[in-house]
Specification:
single chain, about 280 residues, alpha+beta, Muramoyl-pentapeptide Carboxypeptidase, domain 2, 4-stranded antiparallel beta sheet, 7 helices, about 55% helix, binds zinc ion
Length: about 280
């Protein structure tokens, strides 16, 4: 050997160099693989996160959609309730106006009454200022004296004033026997509650029956000419008696029949707790 280097050695260096380069390349490859693995892992992780995010976004969108539809439903229910409430208010306003008109009509009739029923109307009104204060005068039992009617029979709703007797409640009239029984019942009621019975309606002439029949909801008023009001044998009461759960109503159920007055079966069950009829 002449000691000259092998040409390959000049380019590659010694075997040690070769070994070092080999180890370096292996190391480099290893690093690269690790980098690739990390990149892949990151890619997978990113993909998973994207999937998760997409899923979450989809769920959020669905939830938002559900919330929107629930909100729309709630709003619709609220609107419906408001509409119904408005209708009930209108109906109440209408009935209150009707009651006020009816009372006004009766006041006119009551004012006319005394002239037609020889002084009976005057006795129907408690004497103002007699005895203690106004309250005493108002709640003092007073028994109107009535001639007892004209004895004739009359068509429903066509009673002349002379065939009716006034109640202690101004402007209210009934057939004489019903009126007398009502006055006794009213006295017992005053003894129990300290106030006269509240009467919203009593004898109802035919034209009033027609008007009510036309204005009331179906089934709420009797067919004209068939109402017990038209015979002077029915009253519509207020002051608590019109509410089935009130002590006044309970008292009436227990005590009115003893005076010949009943809340008929058809009026029970909350249908017309205010309507009472004289059965004799
Ligand atoms: Zn009635």
């Amino acid at each position: 050997m002449d000691g000259s280097a092998h040409p390959a050695q000049a380019w590659l260096g010694g075997p040690e160099d070769l070994l070092e380069r080999g180890a370096y390349l292996t190391l480099l490859a290893g690093h690269r693989t690790a980098d690739l693995d990390r990149a892949e892992a990151a890619r997978v992780a990113a993909g998973t996160l994207a999937d998760l995010a997409e899923g979450a976004e989809r769920e959020r969108a669905e939830a938002a959609e559900e919330a929107a539809s629930a909100r729309a439903e709630a709003q619709a229910a609220l609107d419906a309730q408001e509409d119904r409430f408005g209708e009930l208010l209108d109906e109440q306003t209408r009935l209150e106006r009707l009651l006020a008109e009816r009372r006004a009509a009766w006041e006119v009739r009551a004012a006319r009454g005394p002239a037609e029923v020889a002084g009976a109307g005057e006795r129907a009104v408690p004497a103002a200022g007699a005895g203690g204060g106004d309250d005493r005068a108002r709640i003092a039992p007073d028994t109107p004296v009535c001639s007892g009617g004209d004895g004739g029979s009359h068509v429903n709703g066509r009673f002349p004033v002379s065939a009716l007797c006034p109640l202690p409640q101004a402007g209210e009239w009934l057939r004489p026997d019903a009126a007398a029984a009502f006055v006794a019942l009213d006295a017992a009621y005053r003894a129990r509650f300290g106030v006269p019975m509240c009467v919203a309606d009593s004898y109802r002439p035919y034209h009033e029956q027609v008007r009510l029949f036309q204005e009331m909801l179906p089934g709420m008023a009797a067919r004209p000419g068939t109402s017990q009001h038209g015979l002077g044998l029915a009253v519509d009461l207020c002051g608590g008696v019109h509410q089935p759960s009130s002590p006044q109503h309970a008292w009436m159920l227990a005590n009115a029949p003893g005076h010949g007055w009943i809340n008929p079966d058809w009026a029970r069950g909350g249908f017309e707790p205010w309507h009472w009829e004289f059965t004799g």
